[in-house]
Amino acid sequence: MKLNLRAIDLNLLTIFDAIMQHKRMSQAAEALHMTQPAVSHALARLRTTFNDALFIRTRAGMKPTPKALQLAGPIRDALRQIQEALESDEPFDPLQAQRTFTIAFAQYGEMSVFPALLDRIHQASSALRINSIGEANAEALELLKEGNIDFCFDMQAPDDDRLESCLFSEEDWVIIARKENPRYKKRITAKQYFAEKHIVLALKGGKKQLIQRTMANLGGERRILAEAQQLIAIPSLVMQTNAIATIPARLAEYPIYQHQLRVLKLPFDLPKTPFHLIWHRAMNQDQGHLWLREQILQCR
User: Fold this and answer.
1) What percent of the chain has pLDDT over 90?
2) Torsion sign over Cα 10, 75, 165, 106
3) What is the pTM of this model?
4) Domains in the chain: ranges and CATH
């Protein structure tokens, strides 16, 4: 059945989008500055319009039906384009803008990039709010494609026409060992490196295979003592064992580790790892988004 657009209250689409994002009626109502009964009434009208339940109430929240999932992307894109058109000529004032941005900082950006960004926003006396999420890179990219977050970081540039990126940094890698480790004071040889036990980041699929191939090309295979799910957990684990780890230099230089970790140069040349800042192409004309992007890039 073909819907008559003139018969649809387009305000209902913003309510549909809020329920899709928050998955709970109370949170959607809060985000929309509406009462929960008003949101429930709007959902009833949406169900009538689309002849579908759209959302099913469960213990985990409002579960979208297949029809709702089909509608979610096009509705989000349409709302974004409307907002873009209305705001494209308006200057952005970070002092006045009441806006929240969400960023997936990848494995260690929350310790290295996030503090610097918050400092810049504070110095600009901005009213903006920044939320950080810890989703894995693949999950963060999906959230970005759906418009649920504003930026993410990844070691690879995205292969998707909906997304754009720029090189944020290229990271050197170093070895860390606890200062009480009796075996290493100033340097480590390649033979010692591959004989030692390592704490590594848990990786899957292509990235894990890439690391394994790189190590094989360098002459060995690391002996794994433990795998950590978060890169920022590795320095703390090294402090409490005689294992070593290979991490980005920027993380190793973080002030809280200076008195407990020894930083050693790798005994071989390891290519620098690129980190890309990624965003949705649809945000290229959004003045607030452009302002925040520039602030992030100043944190390199």
Assistant:
1) 49
2) positive
3) 0.69
4) 5-87 (1.10.10.10), 100-169+275-297 (3.40.190.10), 173-266 (3.40.190.10)
